[in-house]
Amino acid sequence: MIDAAALVREARRRQGISQAQLALRAGTSQHAVSLIERGLRRPSLDTLDRLLLVTGHRLGGGLEVVETEEDPIHLAAGQRRDAGERLAQGFAWGEFAHDFRGAARR
C-alpha cells in the first residue's frame, strides 16, 4: 500500500514549502494537506499525483517520490521567473482562489 502521507510530506519538505504553500499551488486547503500528511485522509491517485507534481515530483515506478525533469517554477521550458514574477503569480492565484470560493458559495 502507498504511504501517501509520507510521500506528500517528503515531497513538500524537499521543495522547502509549507503546507499552506502546497495547498495554494495544488488548489486545495491547508487543512486537507494536513489531513493527508497525518494519514487521516487518503487522497485519490489524481490528488496524490497533483500534490506531488506541484512540488516538482512524481510517483516513480517503485511508488517512491522522484524529482521530475520539469521545474514547477518555470513558465515554459527554459524560462525562469524572477522573484517578482513568482510573487505576482502567487497573488493572482490567491485572488483567483478567493473569487472561485466566493462564486461557489453563491
Q: Give the beta-strand count.
A: 4
Q: State mean pLDDT (0 to 100 scale).
A: 76
CATH class of the largest domain: Mainly Alpha
Write down the Rg: 14 Å
The CATH homologous superfamily of the largest domain is termed lambda repressor-like DNA-binding domains
How far apart the termini lie comes to 40 Å
Helix content: 55-70%
- Please report the number of helical segments: 5
The fold-level CATH name of the largest domain is 434 Repressor (Amino-terminal Domain)
* Widest β-sheet, arrangement of strands: 1-2
Biggest sheet statistics: 2 strands, antiparallel
pLDDT below 50 for ≥5 consecutive residues: which ranges? 74-78
